[in-house]
Design goal:
By secondary structure, the protein is mostly helical. Helices cover 54% and strands 5% of the residues. The chain has helices at 9-19, 26-43, 53-62, 67-87, 116-125, 130-141, 146-151, 183-189, 212-225, 232-246, 250-257, 262-267, 273-289, 291-296; strands at residues 157-159, 165-170, 176-181. Helix 1 (9-19) packs antiparallel against helix 2, helix 2 crosses helix 4 (67-87) and helix 6 packs across helix 10 (232-246).
């Protein structure tokens, strides 16, 4: 129930975002603003502070689209009302009407790496554009997200004697991790590292850092111009798949990719059944020839 009825929706939304300004990245803030405002519109004539459980229940069951999208909106509503009822100062609610809401079951996402042929084509076509070439390789050969490319600072790159580098980057949620860059990539990156301390990749117009959305847009536009309809993020899936072929240690791969769980790493790692043929063939040969029993004895 509301503590007071005379609070505009926009005030609630702005205070909610302000309360999380030190925790959320701009992209998260923008998404939560969109979701909170959409919720406010859908609840009308009730307001955010006067909406009842029945109002929220009807809103939840009016949502359409992919399960992931619905789950994201439900999570956003839960977060907003948890803040209103527990953390807002002054408190705006004494209850949490979203407690009754269920999130749809989200089917497990399968790996979706960019096709090898498409990655090779993109690299060949990006040779004349050093910045795009470096972005493609950072995503496809070092596993960086677009936000990590955008936020990378010159001081984050630690070159090693063998020509490779360690990349001490800030990832999602402000978490730091160390990724790696091969010697060939570092050589192409070096011109971007010679300027003053600051962002590695800057806009020509004003010398400021690209935003994560802009990096994603530019890469995706470049790919579409080549008739490649995969996205910048599919390059990160390409990295996960390729790296696992060389190093099957999922713990090391998870740390390298900045994943909090091995389940997330598996979503980025496509295992080809063709890779299993050799092992299955060896197993079958040993079993039917009797070598299995002799080896076990």
């Amino acid at each position: 129930m509301p503590i007071t009825n005379n609070i505009p929706n926009e005030y609630v939304v702005q205070e909610y975002l302000r309360a999380h300004r030190d925790r959320w990245r701009p992209g998260t803030t923008r998404l939560r603003r969109i979701q909170a405002r959409a919720l406010a519109v859908a609840l009308a004539p009730a307001t955010l502070v006067t909406a009842t459980e029945d109002d929220l229940y009807e809103w939840r069951h009016s949502l359409t689209g992919e399960p992931e999208t619905i789950a994201s909106y439900v999570s956003a509503a839960r977060g907003l009302y948890r803040w209103m009822s527990a953390r807002a100062r002054p408190r705006l609610r004494i209850d949490d009407p979203t407690a009754i809401l269920d999130r749809p079951r989200v089917p497990p996402r399968l790996p979706r790496p960019m096709l090898d042929a498409h990655f090779d084509l993109a690299l060949r076509c990006a040779v004349r554009d050093p910045q795009m070439y470096v972005w493609l390789v950072l995503a496809g050969c070092s596993g960086l997200r677009c936000c990590e490319i955008a936020w990378m600072q010159t001081t984050d790159v630690e070159e090693r004697p063998d020509g490779s580098a360690l990349l001490h980057i800030i990832g999602k949620g402000g978490r730091r991790r160390t990724a790696a860059a091969g010697a060939g990539l570092v050589q192409v990156m070096r011109p971007f590292l010679r300027g003053p301390r600051g962002p590695v990749f800057t806009r020509v117009s004003d010398g400021r850092a690209h935003t994560p959305d802009r990096v994603s847009q530019l890469v995706n536009r470049f790919l579409r111009e080549l008739d490649i309809h995969e996205t910048a993020h599919s390059l990160r899936h390409r990295f996960g798949t390729d790296y696992h072929r060389i190093d099957p240690d999922l713990f090391r791969q998870a740390a390298l990719m900045g994943h909090a769980s091995l389940d997330m790493t598996r979503r980025y790692t496509e295992v080809s059944p063709l890779e299993s043929v050799r092992y299955v063939d060896e197993l079958t040969t040993r079993r039917v020839s009797g070598d299995w029993r002799r080896g076990a004895a």
